[in-house]
């Protein structure tokens, strides 16, 4: 796999999760104490229908409570390099080594009062039938590792209906009815469970007018989360209040409205984002606060491992240049003339956010594949103005 990536780069010769300061910066940048937790029995339902953008499926049919048989992940997984440097947003699959851009979204703002703005996402999902991306009508999308199925939330804001979509057939394998409304979904690392974060009201509300609107810093309407075992056909709800806002005296806070939960790298714990350091707090699957798992390192504010597949190297923080260090010694292994290191493609190459030309404007950027020593860079996507409203944000998923 490493040789294939290197050969492709030499031939060519060149963002399911929040920054610590602003919620709307999170929308521009990338892209997850129980009390009286109860087990909810849910009906597993499905509609046999062809997926058509903007249309809803026919009336669902109740499925047995035994759950859903998920399609198998490809084995071996593809490892080739796929790029689209002509279209923005990309019209063809973007991938390198073990990672692919499974979806992307754009954001827009709409006024909902004199001094409030609501941020909406429009999601575009990978379609293996065309090898491109298709616009969806869903409020949230997350693709399972292997790019065979996606979890989707019906509607465009909060949702009480979660679907599991077969990407290859575009048929809904099941619909899951939820008592508590949710605003995000994230697949477990093994691709069998879904973590859905529940809110009492829509979390992406900013205070102010137009482009000047920002987070209220008052806190989050998060109420808890669902753990959904898709093959098992169960959905368990757990209460979990948000972290306190910035006005609190607590040492760990988060003033953002959206505080989506994510999985640990091994799927044994879940975590929530902070606006302090460290950038996340961990919980057991039942919602009890837990120490950070030893040896797990993450790309900042993401669910992606910062450690290379062979365990030797670690991705560093944002910067120009960025740097990669040795896991055992902390010694710098290489520096790269890019803005952000997003994910390992293989042991020697990284999917990163690069900037155009001499990087006079950091917001004129696109995805690139860069070697650890920074000597080889391959453009994966066309550069675009990532700071403008409507700019696309990619979501990376293991292939």
Structure description:
This protein has 399 residues and is mainly beta. It has a domain at 21-69 and 76-303. 5% of the residues lie in helices and 38% in strands. It is built from two helices and 28 strands. Strands 1, 2, 3, 8, 9, 10, 11, 12, 14 and 15 form a ten-stranded antiparallel sheet that branches. Strands 4, 5, 6, 7, 13 and 28 form a six-stranded antiparallel sheet that branches. Strands 23, 24, 25, 26 and 27 form a five-stranded antiparallel sheet that branches. It is globular, with a radius of gyration of 20 Å.
By DSSP, the count of extended strands is: 28
N-to-C SSE string, H for helix and E for strand: HHEEEEEEEEEEEEEEEEEEEEEEEEEEEE
The main sheet comes to: 10 strands, antiparallel
The low-confidence runs, each spanning 5 or more residues with pLDDT under 50, are: 1-66
* Cα-atom radius of gyration: 20 Å
Q: Looking at the structure, what is the overall shape?
A: globular
What is the residue-averaged pLDDT? 86
Structural class: mainly beta
Helix content: under 10%
Number of helices: 2
Give the distance, in angstroms, between the N- and C-terminal Cα atoms.
13 Å
Per DSSP, what share of the residues sits in E-state strands of 2 or more residues? 35-45%
Which features characterize this protein?
399 residues; ten-stranded antiparallel beta sheet; disordered N terminus; transmembrane helix; transmembrane; 2 helices; mainly beta; WD40 repeat domain-containing protein; membrane; single chain
């Amino acid at each position: 796999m490493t040789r294939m990536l290197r050969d492709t780069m030499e031939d060519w010769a060149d963002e399911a999760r929040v920054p610590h300061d602003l919620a709307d910066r999170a929308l521009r940048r990338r892209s997850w104490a129980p009390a009286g937790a109860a087990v909810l029995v849910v009906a597993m339902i499905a509609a046999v229908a062809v997926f058509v953008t903007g249309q809803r499926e026919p009336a669902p049919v109740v499925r047995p409570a035994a759950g859903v048989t998920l399609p198998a992940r490809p084995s071996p997984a593809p490892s080739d390099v796929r790029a689209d440097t002509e279209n923005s947003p990309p019209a063809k699959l973007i991938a390198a080594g073990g990672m692919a851009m499974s979806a992307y979204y754009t954001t827009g703002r709409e006024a909902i009062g004199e001094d409030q703005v609501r941020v909406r996402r429009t999601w575009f999902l990978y379609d293996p039938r065309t090898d491109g991306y298709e616009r969806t009508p869903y409020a949230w999308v997350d693709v399972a590792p292997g790019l065979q199925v996606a979890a989707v939330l019906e509607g465009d804001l909060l949702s009480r209906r979660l679907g599991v979509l077969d990407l290859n057939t575009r048929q809904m394998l099941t619909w899951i009815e939820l008592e508590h409304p949710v605003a995000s979904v994230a697949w477990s690392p093994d691709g069998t469970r879904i973590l859905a974060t529940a809110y009492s009201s829509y979390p992406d509300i900013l205070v102010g007018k137009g482009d000047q609107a920002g987070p209220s810093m008052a806190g989050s309407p998060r109420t808890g989360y669902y753990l959904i075992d898709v093959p098992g056909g169960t959905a368990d709800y757990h209460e979990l209040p948000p972290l306190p806002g910035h006005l609190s005296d607590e040492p760990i806070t988060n003033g953002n409205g959206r505080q989506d939960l994510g999985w640990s790298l091994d799927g044994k714990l879940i975590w929530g984002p902070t606006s302090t350091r460290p950038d996340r707090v961990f919980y057991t699957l039942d919602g009890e606060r837990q120490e950070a798992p030893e040896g797990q390192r993450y790309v900042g504010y993401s669910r992606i491992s910062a450690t290379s597949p062979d365990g030797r190297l670690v991705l560093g923080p944002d910067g120009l240049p960025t740097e990669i260090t040795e896991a055992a010694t902390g010694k710098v292994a290489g520096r790269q003339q890019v803005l952000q290191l997003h994910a390992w493609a293989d042991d020697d190459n990284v999917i990163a956010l690069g900037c155009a030309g001499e990087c006079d404007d950091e917001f004129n950027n696109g995805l690139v594949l860069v070697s650890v020593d920074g000597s080889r860079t391959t453009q994966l996507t066309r550069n675009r103005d990532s700071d403008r409203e409507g700019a696309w944000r990619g979501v990376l998923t293991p292939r």
